[in-house]
Amino acid sequence: MVRNIGITMVAMAFLVIISVLLVKVLVKETEHLAIDNFNDYYYNVPDSTKENIFLDLKKTVELNLSQGVPQSGAIIRNTEPYLYTYDAKNGWYVGSFVVDIPNIQQSYKVEFNYSEDPDYAIGGYAVLIYCLPEDKMVYPDFDCKENLPFVRKEN
Question: Minimal CB count within 10 Å: which of 39, 56, 72, 144?
Answer without folding.
Answer: 39
